[in-house]
Amino acid sequence: MSHANYEEVVSQLKSELNTDCAISNRYGIILASLIKEFAKGKIIPQKILELISEKEQIAEELNLKQINSFALESMDYNYLFSFSEELILISRVPLNVNLAKFMPSIRTLTLKLSKSYQEQEGGIKEFSVFDFSKDITKIESALKEEDINKEKYAIIKDLIKFISK
Which domain holds residue 105? Predict the structure, then answer.
């Protein structure tokens, strides 16, 4: 799924569910958004990302199997963060919406989007090994030459100082 498709998904959610949404990758980079606080290209605040990354520990402490989402209530809206392995879906929901009815739909959508994202991105399956020994040898030889040149210039500097006295 490309970034343009994320824009379409966000627009469709706005028209069908009457809620503004933002879609982020697992690193917190916003891929598409209708929420000004989470504009496209920005990064989700670090504290929220830390909370999401610690969901397993939080679930363990609360004796839960897993945590799929959490909500933040502000003066004007509820911000619902639903997450999967690859994506984070942020929904800005009016306070009068029943989150218990809204959350299962958003969770299902998050899982479908994540599956599409994994198919599109494919992830890095294999790392190639790069031999840095040649580069390191070049750097070492350049440093040696620089040291030799510094010594030559030091002699010239000493001569200039001696002559200028």
Answer: 3-121
105 and 143 in a single domain? The answer is no
pLDDT tens profile 36-65: 999 999 999 999 999 988 889 999 999 999
The angle subtended at Cα 64 by Cα 61 and Cα 65, nearest 5°, is 125
Q: Rounded to an integer, what distance in angstroms lies between the CA atom of residue 5 and that of residue 73?
A: 29
What is the per-residue pLDDT across 93-147, written as a single tens digit (0 to 9) for each? 888 878 777 777 777 777 777 777 666 655 544 445 556 677 677 777 777 777 6
- Domain presence at residue 102: yes
CATH number, residue 74: 3.30.450.30
The whole-model pTM stands at: 0.64
CA distances from 60 to 13, 44, 56, 57, 80 (A): 32, 24, 6, 5, 21
Q: Are residues 52 and 116 in the same domain?
A: yes
Tell me: do 80 and 43 sit in the same domain. Answer: yes
